Structure formats: structure tokens, C-alpha cells
UniProtKB/TrEMBL annotation:
Residues 1-23 are annotated as: Disordered. Gene3D superfamilies: lambda repressor-like DNA-binding domains. One of its GO terms (molecular function) is DNA binding. This is Helix-turn-helix domain-containing protein. It comes from the Bacteria. Residues 26-82 form the HigA2-like helix-turn-helix domain. Pfam families: HTH_37.
């Protein structure tokens, strides 16, 4: 039988609480919704991925990230810019 006891009782430091977790959830929901719309628009578009990236002023890697579902690599502003580039209904109204 061991008589050794655990003498180091340090608790891991908890990260500070988030100020408004709802904002992160809302942002993620908006980006997810836009990602789904954009992938459908890209699929039916006559434009190629390189042309879309060039017109939106984004690197080609961002389009690759979008099509691969790597949502964390794209900001809401980048997604909105892509939508304005691809969606003809948004630019005509």
C-alpha cells in the first residue's frame, strides 16, 4: 500500500469568461448560411474559381477553403464580398 499523496494541488487556470457568446454563435450561423449559398452559386456559375477569386479581390486559397468547408478560414466580410461577386441578383438591385 502506498502512502504517497498528491501534494501538488494547482488548478488549471480557467480562461476568462467570454463577454457575449451569442455574438460568436450568430457570426458562425451567418457564415455557415453564406457558405452554403456560395457553394451552390459557384457550382452553377459560369465563372471559374480563379475568376471568382480575382473579381472578389481574394486569394484563390480562400475559394479553396470555402469549397472544402473550412469556414474558420473565411470572415463574414469575405463571404459577403464573394456573394456580391457571384450573385447577379444582388448586383442588379
Amino acid at each position: 500500500m502506498s502512502t504517497a499523496s498528491h501534494t501538488c494541488e494547482t488548478d488549471p487556470v480557467d480562461p476568462p469568461p467570454r463577454r457575449c457568446p451569442d455574438l460568436d454563435v450568430r457570426d458562425l450561423e451567418q457564415r455557415t448560411r453564406l457558405m452554403r449559398i456560395l457553394t451552390r452559386l459557384i457550382a452553377v456559375s459560369d465563372l471559374g474559381s480563379r475568376d471568382i477569386a480575382r473579381r472578389a479581390g481574394l486569394p484563390m486559397q480562400k475559394i479553396s477553403d470555402l469549397l472544402a468547408g473550412r469556414l474558420e478560414q473565411l470572415t463574414l466580410d469575405e463571404l459577403r464580398s464573394l456573394r456580391r461577386t457571384i450573385d447577379p441578383e444582388l448586383t442588379s438591385s
